Amino acid sequence: MSGPDEFDWIARLLRPLATAPEALGLMDDVAVLSPPPGMDLVITADALVAGVHFLPDDPLDLVARKALRVNLSDLAAKAATPFGYLLSIAWPDAVDWHGRALFAQGLAEDQARYGVSLLGGDTVATPGPLTISITALGWAAKGAARLRSAAAPGDVVLVSGPIGDGWLGLQSAQAGRDDRLARRYRLPEPRLDLREILLAGAGGAADISDGLVADTGHIADASGVRILLDLDRMPLSPEASGWLAKQDDNAAGLAQLATGGDDYQIVCTVDPMRAGRLTGFTAMGSVVDGQGVETRYAGQPVNLTRTGWRHGKDG
Amino acid sequence: MSGPDEFDWIARLLRPLATAPEALGLMDDVAVLSPPPGMDLVITADALVAGVHFLPDDPLDLVARKALRVNLSDLAAKAATPFGYLLSIAWPDAVDWHGRALFAQGLAEDQARYGVSLLGGDTVATPGPLTISITALGWAAKGAARLRSAAAPGDVVLVSGPIGDGWLGLQSAQAGRDDRLARRYRLPEPRLDLREILLAGAGGAADISDGLVADTGHIADASGVRILLDLDRMPLSPEASGWLAKQDDNAAGLAQLATGGDDYQIVCTVDPMRAGRLTGFTAMGSVVDGQGVETRYAGQPVNLTRTGWRHGKDG
User: Fold this and answer.
1) Which of A85, A137, A245, B281 has a C-alpha 20 to 30 A away from that of B138?
2) DSSP of A247-270, one letter per residue?
């Protein structure tokens, strides 16, 4: 392999990112952490592949930040406080020193922003596409992590912000535009700001990466409940409202936005008595006995299929 | 992408591997662990790429087991007790259901063997080669992890078993042979059996994945010391002894074995007063002031270069 020297990459670009003493200056094969008493370790891993999860010509600082942020988003949904991450990265030869430096610069920016440290990992060569796997670690008070499995019949369902911007941003990015939504697609914002609010009331919670409907479905599956979502109550950005106004079928447009993914908002369930504590959230559904997710528009079921959406009563 | 369905793969093949309750049945995006009081978390990540770290036609159960074992080997060298792991895997389309089932079967075998559980991770598609990233977690009593940084001048240097079998095994495997060393190359044995022995005496320790000389160099770098290695004291398997007898230059042959990698033995430093506690280890060097590693044969320096080895006094 003829790419940059791996020892240089580690010593000059990664070691400055190992700011926590627990990272042992990347001089060992491991990190060693002393868990704070009374805290649970919350741990998650997400992988990104060039051409699958980001566009091959996306700037590498943004790719690095997105790879970190999608992991932090998983911790945010659990109301955990991020501490650090391990990075396994497979570099194609074609990425030169400048590209790697840009990647490390992106990590440095978001480490400062979110107060996390590189803790370790691995760097290898690949004849394939750039492949990034991050394992992120956070702490939560014992038993306080907000799990998907905690939804209960009678709960209401809330979302933390506009839905559909991720999917619209992907369309923009693919069309070569550099508007707000394209930038948001490339650089999502994990809702770590919601930790105290989630702790104050949320039951089951998930971040919205696969799409509102899919991630709500994960809560339904993990909790053994059925969740009803009213698409006409779904919060939208001004851009998404503008896009929706141009669609022939309002319900189908909303269904598209609700299944698009990459929003990185949080969907959670909450006992109605505590719903008032979740300031900034929007109510758009309820939890009942049963299984699966039912999407509705004007009180009628909207049947989602892989290839499209149709109105009907068999959803 | 037209490979097996990712939800089926997770539900039918991965979920049975999530044996620890902390894995939440893979129904969440995270695992939540309550650290045992008084224990440190020891965490490591290693990635493997088809065609780079294993042969593209290696059986997938062995690939899975090797991916897990190289991570467990890192924990073994720290005298940590493995608990579980997260798996991020990028599948090419070409791997069918049978291949994935074989991969999961390999993980199941080694989970039972080493008492670990799958805790989470991610599964994605890739247009490139099969890429596996594992993050392994273990526990060690607070402050007890054997780090690379603990070597001190005056220590002796010990190795836990034969050196060079990994490199000879790679030659065998590449030549299509299925002898003991080829099988050992495909399926290394992490020295988790040495935990109590390491705790009884070892100072700095590392597993031998890059090669004895390189990994000893990591200890030297992390500890700020110089390490002298006598190649003529290096323990060899019968196969390695047989190979060495056929080489023209004994010192060069030993240097080849000492730089080959994939041995997954443990090299450690120990105060001479405690060396007797490390039963089963072989002494082959010493720690002095300075930096780097000096390899010697018959008391004379052997100069290692990237392209070969020559005798000399400038090593």
Assistant:
1) B281
2) -S-HHHHHHHHHTS-----EEEEE
3-state secondary structure A285-296: EEEECCCEEEEE
pTM: 0.94
**pLDDT (tens digit, 9 = 90+) per residue, A244-303?**
999 999 999 999 999 999 999 999 999 999 999 999 999 999 999 999 999 999 999 998
Q: For B45-94, what is each residue's pLDDT tens digit? A: 999 999 999 888 899 999 999 999 999 999 999 999 999 999 999 999 99
d(CA A68, CA A45): 10
**In the structure encoding, which two tokens stand for residue A223, read together?**
């909790």
Q: Hey, of B22, B117, B133, which one would you mutate to test binding to chain A, going by the most A CBs within 10 A of its CB?
A: B133
Quick check: A148 and B80 CB within 8 A?
Answer: no
Residue with tokens 């670990």: B116
A44/B120 touch (CB, cutoff 8 Å), yes or no: yes
State how far the Cα of B255 lies from the Cα of B277, in Å rounded to an integer.
28
Residue that is written with structure tokens 């649970």 in the block = A40
Chain A environment of B147 (Cβ under 8 Å):
24, 28, 32
Task: Measure the CA–CA gap between A81 and A67, rounded to whole angstroms.
Answer: 18
Q: Which amino acid appears at position B66 of this protein? A: K
**Comparing C-alpha atoms, which of B206, B224, B225 is closest to residue B216?**
B206
Which helix (H) or strand (E) covers residue B135, if one does?
Answer: strand B131-141
Contact (CB<8Å) A32/B24: no
Q: How many helices (H) and strands (E) does chain A have?
A: 9, 13
Is residue A313 classed exposed, middle or buried when 0-12, 13-18 and 19+ CB atoms within 10 A define those classes?
A: exposed
